[in-house]
Structures are given as structure tokens and as C-alpha cells.
Amino acid sequence: MAERKRTGSKRRRRSTVEVHQKSAPPRVHRHTLIEINRAVFTARRKAAHERAFELLREEIPATAKEKERRAAQYQFCLQLFDDAMTATQRSQIEQETPVLQYLRLIRETVSANLALVHHELALIHQAAEFSRLLGDTVLARFQIRSDVVSEGERGVLERVSSLLQFGDPILRKDDEERMATFTPDDHRRYRLALREYRRFYRRPLACKEPVARETPAP
After folding, report:
1. Is 103 exposed, middle or buried, given 0-12, 13-18 or 19+ CB atoms closer than 10 A?
2. Which of 40, 52, 108, 170 is disulfide-compatible with 193, CB 3.0–4.6 A?
3. How far apart are CA 199 and CA 205, in angstroms?
4. In the 8-state DSSP scheme, what is residue 180?
5. Model pLDDT for residues 122-141, shown as the tens digit of each residue
């Protein structure tokens, strides 16, 4: 009798599992999600990199007398490169590629300039305290005027410009290879997403996400 009860209990458990498996929606494979979202993520990466390129090559060098503004612009560039890296990672199977290596390198370089500007701003805004700790003579060797670009920042910015010249063709080539595999609907979604993300990255940082959204992972 006990054996029959155990057998019946096992059958009921198997039946419950089978019903659950039949009713549960099928999981979407990661590779399928990558294929579905590649057009949108490629557009987002392009828009983010374009905006960072404009800031670092044109807008930031033109704000030589506004150190605080440059700090905010450098911070925004870090966000743009983060978005570009995330879009790349979520739209390819490979874990490491030349595109990711380039984006990681230029992000680290821009981050160094942001740290340098923050340090210079601290010397400016807390001059009295630093003078008390270091003395006026020592402080004078490190202090930077708020309306000039220091030699250190200018040197890093030149390095960033060289990296942009190096990496932009890599991104363009990768975009071309991706778009060569797009279907007509992929091209339509790419154009829509690119327009929305370009608009998005020119708005204040507090704005909401653009309309063109990726298919969420399960």
C-alpha cells in the first residue's frame, strides 16, 4: 500500500512538472535577441560615438575659459562611451573585439582628463585651505587659473583626438559589415533609431529615453 502511494505521488509530481513546462512560454535564445536588436543597438552606438566625437573634437576645445563646463562635458562623454560599449556588447556574440578595445581605451583616457580637471578645480575653489597646508610658494607651482586649459589637460585632449582618428574608421567598418546583413525592416528600424538617439543625445541628460527601444531580454 505504501509503495502504491509513493508511486502515485511521483506520477502526480511528474504530471505537474509536465503541465508547467507546456504552459510556460518558450525562452528566447540570446543569439536570437542579438539578431533582433542588432539594428537598434548599432544605431545607438553610432549616435553616442558621433556625439562624443563632436564634443571632444569641436565643442570642448572651444570652451577654454569654462573649466566647470568642460568637466560636465567630459562626464557626458563617459556616459556616451558607456552607452556605446553596452550597445556593442548587446549586439554581438563575441566578448572582445577591436571596437570594444577602442571604446574602452578612449573612455579611460577621457576619464583621466576629467580627473585632472576636477583636481584643478579643487585647487581653485579650495585655494585658502591648500595654502594653509602647503604654503603659498608650493601651491603656486600647482595652481591653475580657471580661465585657461592646463598643459596637462591639453596634452591628454590631443591624445584623445588621436584616438578618435584611430577608432572612427574601426567603428565605420564594423557598422558597414553589420548593415550588409540587415533586412529591409532592419534598415528601417536602424534609420528610425538613429534619428531618435541623435535627438536624445543632444537633449539635457535628465530627459527620458527615446521612442526607439530594444527588445528586452527574457
Report:
1. buried
2. 40
3. 12
4. T
5. 777 665 555 555 555 545 55
